[in-house]
Write a structure and sequence with these properties.
The structure is a homodimer of 129-residue chains. Chain A is mainly alpha-helical. Chain A contains 6 helices and 3 strands; from the N terminus they run αβααββααα. Chains A and B meet through helix 1, helix 4, helix 5 and helix 6 of A and helix 1, helix 4, helix 5 and helix 6 of B. Chain B binds a DNA duplex (30 and 30 nucleotides) through helix 1 and helix 3.
Chain lengths: 129, 129
DNA sequence: TTAAATTGATTACAGGTGTAATCTTTAACT
DNA sequence: AGTTAAAGATTACACCTGTAATCAATTTAA
């Protein structure tokens, strides 16, 4: 069962994944572009702690927050959910949609090809066992 | 500004994209696996009509519903949003996450390679202009 | 023609989310 | 030691969503 983190809360997680631990005010600062009041950001931090995806340590009167889950794990979960919910698990269609609509740069194309080659050799070596 | 369609509503859209027009009861039938009451499904249809993403024509006492937006367009929108919100627009990371976590089948790998080749030749021929 | 059944419309309601304001506690300054 | 200011905790509130039940209109059956 996947952890539920809302859109706005995700922005907070992104900040903490970039750097942690941070005080609430430091998080607010890093989210300036969102134009959220300090109160709003603190609400999000609170909810994230309650959801168990952010932890904190006390530092005098304030808390220093850190992510309690790994970004990679979270992204994998979200991606899985997206694939299932939007594309009904049809990976080929998902990939086609991204590749066709986003006009990947040559750089991105090369990168992806590299990924595919790595993936294939992984499979070969493990399948052979 | 993107159209907001909830998870449950998306299931209804999927049914209508597969076949339309359909009466509400036909939609209910096709959603049996979801175990939603007929009332619930009708609520979703109503909301979708209000959101302007489903249209209907009268057929005697009942309505026949159809999608008012194209599936491909919708998927592209959702994918764009997912890329931005979850991966902050980082396409390479998104692709890496899918490729690495999903253990693509050989079939899917070949398909993706084909997509990449097509994409590259598109780019070359148009770039040369 | 009246009653029953069906269909869509309206209303309901709890939990999540965006967006804060207010309350409470306690560290810190005087 | 007492007062204050800042940090977190609690409360607020409207809108969305999942999940229906009830209302109203109308078709159909008796």
């Amino acid at each position: 069962m996947t952890i539920r983190v809302s859109e706005a809360e995700k922005s907070v997680m992104d900040v903490l994944w970039q750097e942690s631990p941070l005080s609430s005010l430091e998080v607010v600062e890093k989210l300036q572009s969102q134009e959220w009041s300090e109160k709003t950001v603190k609400t999000f931090l609170n909810r994230l702690v309650k959801k168990g995806v952010v932890s904190f340590e006390k530092d005098g009167r304030r808390y220093l927050y850190s992510p309690a889950i790994e970004r990679e794990e979270f992204l994998a979960d979200e991606s899985e959910g997206f694939l299932d919910k939007v594309f009904k698990g049809n990976m080929k269609e998902l990939l086609a949609t991204f590749v066709e609509n986003k006009q990947l740069s040559q750089n991105e194309l090369d990168y992806l090809k590299g990924l595919l080659d790595d993936n294939k050799s992984d499979r070969e070596s493990s399948d052979v066992k």
